[in-house]
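Progress against Task 2.4 (sequence-to-structure conversion) is shown through the following example record, which the project officer requested during the mid-term review.
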Amino acid sequence: MIIEAKNINKFYGACEALKNFSLSVPRGSSFALLGPNGAGKTTFVKALLDLTQISGGEIKINGISSLDSKSREGIGYLPEKFNFFDYYTVEGVLVFYGKMKGVGDLLSEQIKMALEKTGISDLRKRRVKTLSKGQMQRLGIASILMGDNDLLILDEPFTGLDPIGIKELKDVLRGLQNAGKTLFINSHILTEVEQMCDEMAIVNKGQLVVQGKITELVGESSLEDYFYQKIKS
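Structure tokens generated for the chain above:
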């Protein structure tokens, strides 16, 4: 397992955002964390990346405690809301992230790879302020490829995209999965998740509802119907 979380508790004052929450993510999978707004999805992602301190339990990434900075080596994270400086070019953004990742002599090669995998090679000299929402999302994906990360964590990647942008993003993500990357997708857009992911977990009110392979859990139903049933039961 690339991610293992056991009995996670997280309090914000008197509010318990995660309650004995446990989760395991297989290496090389395309994994979706599903839940309604306020269910605890983003809180778990922040705990996973040690951006918020958990109140109890343990999280390991590649067998290393999430409290250890070494656990974040080989991770790329794209939050739901992200911005790059308007005056940066697409290439300039990747240079910045490549240097942050310590890519070194492989920087040019890494930039070329990231641009090609996300299909934005022709935009490399364009400034950020001229990009569409879909192009920005592709650039965001490209930025987390710098450093050749094995685990990619995407928080609501489909939000705000039109149907063309969603189709293009799914193509990019499928390519990454085929290349052996582990995708951890935090989302509430069920139709896209059903087409993209092979495993999922549902969280509601901070608690794990169910986890497993989507096809085995859903059966002949739709993910939308299955999700609604589990949340309301």
